[in-house]
Amino acid sequence: MELLSEHACHGGVQRCYQHQSAAIGLPMRFSVYFPPQAMAPAAARQPTLFFLAGLTCTEETFMIKAGAQQYAAKHGFILVAPDTSPRGAQMPGEADAWDFGVGAGFYVDATEAPWREHWRMESYVADELFQLVTSELRADPARVGIFGHSMGGHGALVLAQRYPQRFRSVSAFAPIAAPSQCPWGVKAFTGYFGEDDGVWAHHDASALMAKQVSPPFPAGILIDQGLADKFLAEQLYPEAFETACRKAGQPLTLRRHEGYDHGYYFIATFIEDHLRHHASQLQLD
Predict the structure, then answer these.
(1) Strand 46-52 relative to strand 78-82, pairing
(2) What residue numbers bound the domain in which 176 lies?
(3) Residue 272 falls within a domain, yes or no?
(4) 40 lies in a domain?
(5) Domain total in the chain
(6) Is residue 195 part of a domain?
(7) DSSP 8-state class, residue 155
(8) 178 in a structural domain
(9) Which residues are catalytic?
(10) What CATH number is given to the structural domain containing 278?
(11) CA–CA distance, 117 with 9 (Å, rounded to integer)
């Protein structure tokens, strides 16, 4: 693991790392914020939040734009932000579209050629990166939550349901909540999985939740959605996830905000609430 950059931030330190990923088969980058509580040589393992960013983003986008570090410092959270896809595979067509391929890994393990060789973001985030930060970077494996935005909100809601013993709390900003039903998701799932929508359902947050026999997060899920979001009607479908949660008996706080769009000004406005949500569920307060 190679340290690429380091910056003092809110009493802690913001770092970017690169390592050779076994899951991806290529070098991968991720950013980590260490709060002051994690900086002492003999510091205890710290609660940790994984943030999954949206289409076209990198491992730095959330750390630069969201303003989350000040609240992570308050609650003692390590923040981890992976990149959104493999880079440098040099596969034909990998960068032809902004919503598929590079910058658009959708946090799934592709099964279709040629993507299945390197596009293995589910295994990377939920297995390899989880193990790396909990073994080498003082993250407490018993106190890890996950959240994300847009494509990353989709990833957070899906990975939380698929790996509930690893991710103990979950929230999202403007998630792609029913990717099997929207153009972004249909394009990505067709490319990564083929035409079998039965396979798609295993990576669709609303479809997964509708099949839950008991609420996987009884303390609740938090979602914030801006009503001025230009992608809301065609791509996001929060109402589908809301219906699925109602069916499963899953407590959900879905907050709809007049005037807010899909960008990071929206995220920065409500980021403190999300860290409070995770702090409460991980029993930090």
Answers:
(1) parallel
(2) 2-35+45-282
(3) yes
(4) no
(5) 1
(6) yes
(7) H
(8) yes
(9) 150, 229, 262
(10) 3.40.50.1820
(11) 37
Angle at 230 between CA 225 and CA 234, to 5 degrees: 90
Backbone angles phi, psi at 266, to 5 degrees: -65, -50
The per-residue pLDDT for 211 is 96
pLDDT (tens digit per residue) in 25-37: 999 999 999 999 9
Ranges of H-type helices in the chain: 61-65, 69-75, 121-123, 130-136, 151-162, 183-193, 197-200, 205-210, 238-248, 264-281
Nearest to 172 by CA among 161, 180, 188: 161
Q: Can you read off the two tokens belonging to residue 46?
A: 């710290």
Taking the C-alpha atoms of residue 48 and residue 82, their distance in angstroms, rounded to an integer, is: 13
The span from the CA of 189 to the CA of 46, in Å, is 35
The pTM assigned to this predicted structure is 0.96
Q: What is the pLDDT of residue 41?
A: 77
Handedness of CA 191, 177, 268, 217 (dihedral sign): negative
One-letter amino acid of 148: G
Q: Which helix (H) or strand (E) holds 46?
A: strand 46-52
Which residues of the chain register pLDDT less than 50? Answer: 285
Strand-pair partners of 222:
171, 253
Distance separating alpha carbons of residues 199 and 169, to the nearest angstrom: 25
What percent of the chain is modeled with pLDDT above 90?
94
Q: Are 9 and 33 in contact (CB under 8 A)?
A: yes
What SS3 state is found at 112? coil
Provide the sign of the torsion angle of the four alpha carbons 111, 115, 118, 123, taken in this order. negative
Q: Letter for the amino acid at 185?
A: G
